Amino acid sequence: MNVFFDVAEYYYLPQYEPVIEELAERNINAYLLVDSSKKAYFSHLDIRSLGVKDMLFYESDSSKEKIILEYLPDWIIFGNFTQRSEKIPMQVKFALIQHGVGPKSCYYTVSDGDFDVRFVEGTERLNKLKQMYPQDKFLDVGFVKLDPIVNLSLAVPSLKALGLDESKKTILYAPSFFPCSIECLPLNFPEALSEFNIILKPHFFSLSRDKFKKQKQRLEHWAKQENAYLVPIESTNILPYYCLADLMFSDASSTVFEFIALDKPIVWYQDYKLSWSYKGLFSYRLKKRMDFDLKDYFSIGAVADNFSELCNTIKAEIENPLGYQNSRKKYVEGLIGKVDGKVKQRIVNYLEAN
Predict the structure, then answer these.
(1) Cβ(11)–Cβ(177) under 8 Å?
(2) CA-wise closest residue to 231 among 175, 314, 275
(3) Can you list the residues of the chain whose pLDDT is less than 70?
(4) What is the rounded distance in angstroms from the CA atom of residue 318 to the CA atom of residue 334?
(5) What is the helix (H) or strand (E) element at residue 31, kind and residue range?
(6) To 5 degrees, how large is the angle CA 328–CA 252–CA 173?
(7) Exposure winner among 52, 141, 265, 326, fewest CB in 10 A?
(8) DSSP-assigned letter for residue 315
(9) Nearest CA to 140 among 346, 291, 332, 315?
(10) Digit-coded pLDDT (tens) for 68-83
(11) Are 136 and 113 in contact (CB under 8 A)?
C-alpha cells in the first residue's frame, strides 16, 4: 500500500507525522507531495527518520496530477479543501485530516471538497458535520497531532537550551495570523512579565509572508529580551512547547483547543488587530470567517481585553491552574475527542481496511 500526504503548507506536517510513523511501523510506504515553490522549507527535513519513503515535488496542478497518475497511490491524505480531477481514477481514495481544530468556519466548509472519508475530532464536531454533509463519510478518531505527547515519544528541549530560566514558570504565546493580537501588544511585553519565561510561537504565516512583516518585526524585537524565546520558523511543531509551558494565551488560534487537552490553563486575549475590510459595515466578514461567536467558548479559560488585564489574569491563572478544569474537560471531549495516544492506529486501521 502507498499513501501520499499532500503538504500544501509546511505547517501541516505535525498533523501528519504520527500517521506516517504508524504507516512506517506497518511497512507501508508514505510519500510527501510538495509544491516545489516551498521546497526551501523542507530542505532540513530528514525524511528517513520521519518514516517517509520520498518527497515528490510538483510545479503546477498538472504536474501534481501527473505524479499521482504515475504512482496511483491507494490513499492521498489532505489537510485542507481539494477537488478531484476527472483524470484521477476513483481507485485513488481521498481522505481529510484537517490541519487545525480552531474557531474558523473553514473547519467545517473544507468538507465541501471531494473526500472518501474525513477523520474528525470529538462528538460535537462529528454531529455538526453530519448535519451539514449528511451524504459524506466521517469517522471520529480523535486528534492525532497529540499522540506523541500522550505516548511520551516527543523530543522536548530544556528551558536552559532555549536560553530561559528553569526556575521560572513559562508562558506560551501562540497567536493566529488573523485575527491577530501581535501588533496590539506593547514593545516591552516580555519585560512587563519578567517573572515568567515567554515562548513566542506564532503562526507560520506571521514569519513567512511579506503581508505580515510587521508581525515578524515585533516578534523579533520581543525575542531580544532576556526572558523571551522566538521559536524559529523551521520548528513548525508546537508540541514540545506545550510540554514546557505552564499556561498559554492566544487570540483565535486553534492551538487553544489543543492546549486544553493537556489540562493546562489558557487565557483568551481579545485585543487584536483587524483590517478595515473586517470592521464597521464589513464586520459580517469576520463573523462569516469564524464559525461561532468566540464568547461561546470563553468558559474554557479566563478572558483579557487589554494588556493590563492580560498581565493580571496570567498571574492569577498561574496561581490557580485548576480553576477552569471542569470546563476544559467538557470541551476536550466534544472538540478534541479521544486523547489516548491511539488516534494514529485508528486512522491507519481504516486506511488498511478500505
Answers:
(1) no
(2) 175
(3) 102-104, 273-296
(4) 25
(5) strand 29-35
(6) 80
(7) 326
(8) H
(9) 346
(10) 999 999 999 999 999 9
(11) no
What's the Rg (C-alpha) of the chain?
Answer: 20
pLDDT tens figures, 320-345: 999 999 999 988 988 899 999 999 99
Please give the Cα distance from 152 to 9 (Å, whole number): 26
Residue with cell 525575542: 223
In sequence order, the 6+-apart residues with CB closer than 8 A to the CB of 330 are: none
Rounded Cα gap, residues 256 and 176, in angstroms: 10
* Answer CATH for 2-143+338-353 from 3.40.190.10, 3.30.540.10, 3.40.50.11720, 3.40.630.10: 3.40.50.11720
Residue 135 carries which DSSP code? T
Report residue 11: phi and psi, to 5°: -75, 0
pTM: 0.90
Region 160-335: CATH code: 3.40.50.12580
Q: Which three cell numbers stand for residue 3?
A: 499513501
Helices 13-25 and 343-353: angle between axes, nearest 10 degrees: 60
